[in-house]
């Protein structure tokens, strides 16, 4: 809507012509400068500018929906009321049914914790026929880290949904619905995003997975320009999710916290010097999610996968519909399995920190099982 | 007193004289009649409004009585309401910022529900506009909070044994019906919407709160020219300010945080820069203090700087568990 042409908004001809003469063609052009600047530029009175802007605004502004309409629409027109169940019962309950459509869900965790396993399972779930609780659609899987292993996908399918995968031709059918893109740089990914957009609009794509965003973004030059390109991608992906009403799952890497990382506001520093001790304590062993705070704000749901004292945990660290909860999980041949369905409620810094202790012992045991 | 009257008369006379000066050709008898009328009406006005020297101006005394009757929207967290002087105040623009996951959207949704608490229960019985720039508005969550709110209200009604009929009126679906949701997908749409809201609120007079979640998202992504961004943001803030005064509604803007190098170390600060920090009337920062969520009044012309703990429960925003324990102990 932002790119709507001014002469198509039904504005009186004479003033539309003045806009055109000053090379203000789209609504975006007109709304990107203040009314005062516009007055100067167009050389017309404030009243005329205000009424013209009011007119353009009314045409461009998004439609109003009541929350009730949103809910009823979802219940009536969408599979499973707008959620993709993960089949991890505790997690699904906390998320009101699963990964929500139209939103950005992020999986963060150290290498080897099970992010890709989770993604593989999700792509199978989205491609399953509806009678098995799936979305019966195609999946687009952006595999930036070359970690997608089809063999493992089939294995998870055979173990988790034997009734389907043992049917003749079904494994092929299911796996055939998953489309894998392997961009090697962010710019390649950006190009493919436009194709993906078309695919999503044309075909029955029901899930988009990006594994991982960090691998794509961290390859770029660091600094402000990276934040900006990242910002553009977040915006684009979010609007893609929104308009096609599909769930989007993005994975993210971790990095170690560097020195005195910002975690206090100036007034907190002033309030107590004890803050510094906290900082020092945090310094030693913790990991934080990569891609920075602006990205963290942009994701709707953040799931942290971590390992602590020989146990793996999946934590709902940011979610608009659930308190922060942690669930123990393990990985077996059928993918991620929760060990208990009642989450432990988390408090304070625990919600965001990512532990990675005792992983080695745990990994060797699990690794043997896997092979 | 006499002086006041005479000054008012002169004020009225001045106006007439000015009129006469332009084009008004009336006989003297009529003119004095008009003058009499003018002085009368100005006296009548004087009881409610003090003599305005020009349109739109108001004396501090008149504002005082207005300020005393500013309606508030409760946050459902008593401690937070206490430091805010009763809740989110109408006719003011409040900015709330904090790290991801601290509960900004939760507070936004809670306010959108609470503005609808009927007048019989001490609420405003209004409607809410929710502007979602991030896509984080979850109807499921609104439903949870609305149901909890109705439960609390009926408990209250039970205690006070009155207003039975309200029970029927308040249904979760009604609450959802009264939240007007706009999904904004670019900063252009955001600006367009602010311009359009004037008309929208004129048509929906019972809207008492506008929640912008968040003001930051699009303005953080799409700009190269920071000076232009600041100009657009301040124009937008002024428009929100005007809306809040014109319709007597509360405006709540949620903001993200960023890091800034202050005094030799990186510290957290709300996004959009220093000139933006002047824009809102009140600024509240949400932060973690050990295991508790806290809200801190960073800036306010009327409230003293204070902080209070709160918690995000499955029923919405509530007092933090430790503070309720403390009260119980006392």
From TrEMBL, chain A:
It comes from the Eukaryota. PROSITE patterns: RECA_2 (PS50162). Keywords: ATP-binding, DNA damage, DNA recombination, DNA repair, DNA-binding, Nucleotide-binding, Nucleus. It is found in: Nucleus. The keyword Acyltransferase does not apply. The keyword Nucleus applies. InterPro entries: AAA+_ATPase, DNA_recomb/repair_RecA-like, HHH_XRCC3_RAD51B, P-loop_NTPase, Rad51_C, RAD51B, RecA_ATP-bd. One of its GO terms (cellular component) is replication fork. CDD domains: Rad51B. One of its GO terms (biological process) is double-strand break repair via homologous recombination. One of its GO terms (molecular function) is four-way junction DNA binding. Its main location: nucleus. Gene3D superfamilies: P-loop containing nucleotide triphosphate hydrolases. Residues 80-254 form the RecA family profile domain. Belongs to the RecA family. RAD51 subfamily. This is RecA family profile 1 domain-containing protein. It comes from Acacia crassicarpa.
TrEMBL record, chain B:
GO terms for biological process: meiotic DNA recombinase assembly; reciprocal meiotic recombination. Keywords: ATP-binding, DNA damage, DNA recombination, DNA repair, DNA-binding, Nucleotide-binding, Nucleus. GO terms for cellular component: Rad51B-Rad51C-Rad51D-XRCC2 complex; Rad51C-XRCC3 complex; replication fork. Gene3D superfamilies: P-loop containing nucleotide triphosphate hydrolases. Residues 69-257 form the RecA family profile domain. It comes from the Eukaryota. CDD domains: Rad51C (cd19492). One of its GO terms (molecular function) is crossover junction DNA endonuclease activity. InterPro entries: DNA_recomb/repair_RecA-like (IPR016467), HR_Repair_Mediator (IPR052093), P-loop_NTPase (IPR027417), Rad51_C (IPR013632), RecA_ATP-bd (IPR020588). Coiled coil: none annotated. It is found in: Nucleus. Belongs to the RecA family. RAD51 subfamily. Involved in the homologous recombination repair (HRR) pathway of double-stranded DNA breaks arising during DNA replication or induced by DNA-damaging agents. This is DNA repair protein RAD51 homolog 3. It comes from Acacia crassicarpa.
């Amino acid at each position: 809507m932002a790119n709507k042409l001014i002469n198509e908004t039904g504005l009186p001809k004479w003033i539309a012509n003045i806009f055109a003469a000053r090379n203000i063609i789209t609504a975006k052009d007109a709304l990107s400068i203040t009314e005062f600047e516009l007055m100067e530029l167009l050389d017309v009175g404030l009243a005329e500018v205000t009424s013209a802007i009011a007119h353009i605004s009314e045409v461009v502004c998004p439609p109003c929906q009541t929350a009730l309409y949103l809910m009823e629409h979802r219940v009536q027109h969408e599979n499973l009321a707008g959620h993709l169940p993960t089949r991890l019962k505790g997690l699904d309950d906390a998320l009101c049914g699963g990964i929500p459509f139209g939103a950005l869900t992020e999986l963060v965790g150290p290498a080897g914790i099970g992010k890709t396993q989770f993604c593989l399972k999700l792509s199978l779930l989205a491609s399953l026929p509806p009678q098995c609780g799936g979305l019966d659609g195609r999946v687009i899987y952006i595999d930036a880290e070359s970690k997608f292993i089809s063999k493992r996908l089939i294995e998870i399918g055979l173990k988790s949904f034997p009734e389907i995968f043992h049917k003749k031709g079904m494994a092929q059918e299911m796996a055939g619905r998953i489309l894998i893109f392997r961009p090697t740089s962010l710019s390649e990914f950006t190009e493919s995003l436009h194709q993906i957009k078309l695919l999503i609009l044309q075909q029955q794509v029901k899930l988009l997975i990006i594994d991982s965003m960090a691998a794509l973004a961290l390859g770029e030059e660091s600094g402000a320009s990276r934040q900006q390109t990242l910002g553009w991608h977040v915006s684009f992906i979010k609007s893609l999710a929104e308009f096609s009403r599909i769930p989007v799952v993005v994975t993210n890497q971790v990095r170690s916290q560097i020195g005195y990382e910002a975690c206090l506001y100036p007034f907190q520093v002033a309030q107590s010097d004890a803050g510094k001790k906290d900082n020092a304590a945090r310094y030693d062993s913790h990991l934080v999610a990569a891609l920075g705070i602006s990205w963290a704000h942009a994701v709707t749901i953040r799931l942290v996968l971590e390992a602590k004292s020989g146990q793996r945990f999946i934590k709902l660290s940011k979610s608009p519909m659930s308190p922060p909860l942690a669930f123990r999980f393990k990985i077996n041949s059928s993918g991620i399995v929760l060990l208990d369905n009642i989450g432990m409620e988390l408090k304070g810094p625990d919600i965001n920190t990512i532990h990675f202790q005792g992983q080695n012992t745990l990994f060797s045991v699990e690794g043997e099982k896997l092979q | 007193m006499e002086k006041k009257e005479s000054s008012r008369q002169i004020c009225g006379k001045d106006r007439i004289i000015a009129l006469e000066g332009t084009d008004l050709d009336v006989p003297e008898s009529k003119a004095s009649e008009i003058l009499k009328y003018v002085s009368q009406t100005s006296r009548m006005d004087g009881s409610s409004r003090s003599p305005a020297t020009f349109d739109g101006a108001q004396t501090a005394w008149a504002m005082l009585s207005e300020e005393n009757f500013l309606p508030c929207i409760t946050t459902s967290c008593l401690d937070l309401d206490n430091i805010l002087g009763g809740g989110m105040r109408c006719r003011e623009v409040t900015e709330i910022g904090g790290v991801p996951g601290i509960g900004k959207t939760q507070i936004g949704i809670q306010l959108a529900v609470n503005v609808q608490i009927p007048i019989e229960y001490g609420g405003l019985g209004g409607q809410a506009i929710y502007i979602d720039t991030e896509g984080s508005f979850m109807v499921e969550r609104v439903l949870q909070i609305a149901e909890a709110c109705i439960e609390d209200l009926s408990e209250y009604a039970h205690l006070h044994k009155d207003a039975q009929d309200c029970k029927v009126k308040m249904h979760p679906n009604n609450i959802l019906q009264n939240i007007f949701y706009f999904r904004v997908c670019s900063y252009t749409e955001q600006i367009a919407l602010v311009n359009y809201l004037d008309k929208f609120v004129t048509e929906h007079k019972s809207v008492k709160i506008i929640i912008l979640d968040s003001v930051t998202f699009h303005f953080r992504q799409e700009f190269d020219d920071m000076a232009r961004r600041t100009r657009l943001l301040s124009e937008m803030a002024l428009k929100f300010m005007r809306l809040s005064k014109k319709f007597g509604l509360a405006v709540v803007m949620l903001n993200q945080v960023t890091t800034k190098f202050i005094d030799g170390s990186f510290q957290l600060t709300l996004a959009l820069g220093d000139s933006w920090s002047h824009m809102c009337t009140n600024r509240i920062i949400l932060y973690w203090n050990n295991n508790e969520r806290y809200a801190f009044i960073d800036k306010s012309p009327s409230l003293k700087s204070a902080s209070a703990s709160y918690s995000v429960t499955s029923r919405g925003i509530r007092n933090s568990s430790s503070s309720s324990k403390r009260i119980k102990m006392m």
